[in-house]
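Hey,

The postdoc asked me to send both predictions to you directly instead of through the lab channel. I've kept everything plain text so nothing gets mangled by the mail client. Protein one:
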Amino acid sequence: MVKYTCSNCLKDFKQKSHYDAHKLKKIPCNNTVEKIENLINIMITEKNDNILSIMQKEKDKDLTNLSKTNLLNKCKELGITKYSSKNKQELIKLINNNQNNDKKDDKKDDIKDDKKDDIKDDKKDDKKDDKKDDIKIINYIDLFCGLGAFHKAFDLNSSNNIKYNCVFACDIDKGIQKLYNENYNIIPSGDITKINIDNIPNFDILCAGFPCQSFSLAGKKEGFDDKEKGNLFFNILDIIDMKHPTQIILENVKNLLSINNGITFNTIITELKNRNYNVSYKVIDSKYYNCPQSRQRLYIVCDKNKQYIFKDIKNKIIPVSTILDNVESYFDYSSKYYLEQNKNNNNNGCMMIYKLINKNTKKGGRQGERIYSINSCGPTICASSGGPGSKTGFYYINNKIRTLNVTESLKMFGFNSDYKRDSIKNDNDMLFYLGNSIVVNVLSEIIKNLERNEVNQNKNSIGSTTAKGGFNEEAFMINKLNNDSNLRDKFSIFMGKEIKGDAKLIKGNKKSDFEISNIKFQHKKTVIELSDGLTLQRKGGDNGRKEANNFQIKFIPSKLSLNNALVYEI
């Protein structure tokens, strides 16, 4: 049977009509629920008061049982003042009041402690936020990205203070796009000539190892005449013109310096200078950068704010034996070739000990027919070269010969052996990509020096007078001396000693600005005087500062007069 209950007074009704009439009464029923709740609260309060009263009485009993002397001692322990003249009841009252106040103070202290903890937590959070804010984020783009040598080098240089972030990559090769995505979680765009530059995120550094086939010794050396690959440099310029990066790092073969009688290289440098970049360049051999491969490449670094100075690095050469795997796959040459001992076994620091000679033609000795010692550095790994040992060359191991495998070749470039390459099924394809790659170790050192480079382009820099166009004498001369063999030879002749090593800045000496080995270059106004009468002088002195490269080198041996000086135009 259905029962209807009033939610207010809790009265039950068997019929709904009676229940409805009860709800519609002019004088509403009493709220029984509320009354009950109030009664319960009163009872609880009274009970608590009784409990507290009983507890207080017990305390009072305890205090009452104490003698006056004990009460006086307790007052003293509690730090109560003005108690010595009180009677026993007054002493008990003082002690109870003191304990109640202590409880209040404890609550206050707890509140204060909570607030202090909150403040500490806030400060900790602020410090964490500050640390996040202190991290410098530098964005870069990776053009013609290949296997990601630039990306790997930037990752190696990221730290708690600086984070290099790749915001864009491109490469026309589909296999490269898959490899780059496997390793760096970025899918590169394709053909650079079809990229919408507006869609490229803003960035600080532009990196490009632009195609070298048009300039390399192994290629046709067509330079800018190669319409497909030689002119891709101008696509880089289009991106520079729209995005205005602060820094640029370019890489190419060293033959870029000399192809087309130097016109191609001069065009590149001129175009970069016309965009107000301070341009530095250097041919670097990777064998001095803790890499067991001798790979000479030209590196160009451009900076809007300062002249980049390449560090003089000549680390001890690491042998190929340090990166070898336990591989038992060797090349059987006996049916077609025989070994001929190489008389001049030191090829750029790489010990070539044998040549493979064809039994029928009696010819041999191409890149893929050379056999190297594993106790020295290895030769340049090429994307394509002739002979059965093409790409990596042969190595003499346990009286047998073999080429390097992919894992070993990755190590020759500074990549880890765990480089992901599941998308590439053919090892020759991977070796081809490696042959077009850049050595990570070299890029890592160049990047490391980007932020700490201290050659500032301003008129107040010590020992430097800045020309219109942003080049100072020291930086300009260092680049010339390190890359112009003709100029270095002339220095050697007139100094009467061999010049060893690269030119570098001297820090902490106001008189000497830079040096090669023990030969110091001193600065005096518009003239940098070299020992034994050699000087670097601006053409036309103070009145000739119209262009940044307006220099003369004057060789003035001590026995000759100024009129007999040999002048070398820069």
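Protein two:
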Amino acid sequence: MIMSPQNGADVSAKSVTVTISVTNFNIVDKQGQAAVAGEGHVHYYLDVQPPTTPGQPAVPPSGSIWATVAATSYTFTNLALGQHTIYVELVNNDHTPLVPPVTASVQINAVDTTSGGTGGTGGGTASGPIPPEVAQYASDWPLPQGNYESTRATFTASINSSNVNTLGVAWTTPLKGAISTNPIIMGNNIFLQDNAYNIWSIDFDSGNVNWYVENNKPWIGPAGVCVGWGKVFGSATSYDIAAWDMNTGKAVWDTPISNVNTNVHSNIQPIPYNNMIFTSTGPHVGGTQYGGADGYLWGIHQATGEIKWSFSTTDSSNFFGHPELTDGSGAWFPPSIDVNTGIIYWGTKNPGGFGYGGTFGGSTAYPNGYQRPGPNLYSNCIIAQDSINGKMLWYNQTYPHDVVDHDFMNTPILATAPNMYGILAPLDIAIGGGKAGVVFAFDRKSGATLWSTPVGKHQNDNLGALPLDTAIEFYPGVLGGIESHMAYADGVIFVPYDDLWTSYNAFGLQKVQPIGEGTGGLAAIDVNTGKILWDVKLPSLNVGAATVCNDLVFTSTYDGTLYAFNRSDGSQAWKFTAPSGMGINSWPSIARDTILFAYGVGSNPMLVAFKLGATGTIPPPPTTTTTPPPTPSGKTVNITVTAQNIKFDVSTITVPAGATVNITFINKDAQIPHNIAFYTTSAATTRIYIGAIITGPATTTYTFTAPNTPGDYFFRCDVHPTLMTGTFTVTAQ
């Protein structure tokens, strides 16, 4: 795939640099040696079509302009003025074409730039489609899923099955809180963002912080950043898209794309392409919803923050008849981009509604979500758009009229199926998945479904309507199915999945299985047939995506365990267990000899670099001790505390010394775990009482005895220890 120059671009006749992106093929400098499957080099041709005869060297006629190099870029110089066609072909070590041939081409116009002619777009300049940093660091991890096709696969890193057991901790960098996306790696710089919109630039070799922007606006995520044209792009709050200087962190521009009165939020990791940033806003799905809140896809100009286009994901001007009860969709994750066509591919969220009755099940007046009749387009869809103007080219809805929160939200993978069904020629496809726990393959041109394959446990998820008189357990539940991103390599899709039930009836969500009881897995699927090749079961939720590195596929689980499996058969090649209390709800990035994992669940968030040959350790969380049991005073205090929008509704809890404290704790944040924990100080090293973690919506009761010594103590949510805090005041009796 040719990344630059863009098709039809004007370029300088002096020189044009061709940059390509290669997946599932190792570029090696073994020219003239025997052919080895999966490796070789690149032939670049100017105005001559690449030879493709099997078994014959791909050498053009004498006098042709061409080059044979072991690199993903090549520069042609001193071009004649006018139209040219550049061809690229992947070849074996012995210069013979691959079977089937792998070629690409781009048309350019060479102009005289010395006499005031049009400047070129080759080489990833500001006017070209690919940001120069993305082109320069294509072999690192310069985009949210590694590349524009979102395959989450690298074949330029040096980690493989022969050395993975030498991975060790090279360095750790403390973070502020929850992380729900992966870092960007560009050369010696790492960029990442937490779910409070705080941003770090970190040195790749040492883990030292280059600069830090503190926004501290906690939200549910999955917040993240992208980088291009000298800037870092992301959200500074849940209502905007902003840019910062990539070298200093200095603010460049900030564009509102929502406001607090609409309950529509910006909280995804954007992606850069063609002088634009693509992002999304959508209704909040945890806690209270307002009704009439729409979800949008956005194209934002990278230099100025100007809104170039927006696209509503609700195909109804009055929200299907009840705007007071119904919300729209939006996207949780960035799109994939076909850089040859300029088409972007999104996965969208479930439809929303007022309270839990609209999103989950129904309400007393409108069971089964009848306040929004019909399929509720364009929720739970894959959508293809023209990146220039946002025009929708096609859509395919995978789960119409969703009442059980089965978003089709993961970033689609763009791939070429080499032999679909065993009878078709190579076919360009898009691969999608979401919380319904089903993988789909679509024809990339038409959007037609080619096959679909369920993974993980399925129970009651094929009902036409939820029952009125009883609650039933659903698999996958609101935290089940394919919660995080898939990976693709060599004709195989790698799918992380979760098994966690949710109880529903026609009037709404009733109960969510505790997160700690959930399990997961990783499945491998043949891209041509949809057949499951192998399936590995895991003891904890697999919310760490799948990431391919050479002959391995990495993943991680909510309990903080990291895994590497052999791609060929799913056998375990490596495992790392973090200290107790450190969990993962994000996915890694890989470059060179290092893989980065962000531990963002628990009270000890940090970024950890695992490097071949390193022997360091992860620092344990602060040791906690328990205060001596207080003497009960005979007094009883009953208190209600609510968690909503990742905040407590109180900042101070006051009780008499020695009192029996009964706290009714209400967690209104759907799908989000919270608790209340009491400590002697904000250092949280000596505990008074730690309440059990519950996943919302849920209610529990905590009972403990207050300290005998009056004074100000500390309370927090242990899951969000920097975002949800307060003062626990004990008064004299």
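Summary for protein two, as requested: Confidence is low (pLDDT under 50) at residues 115-127, 354-358.

Thanks,
C.
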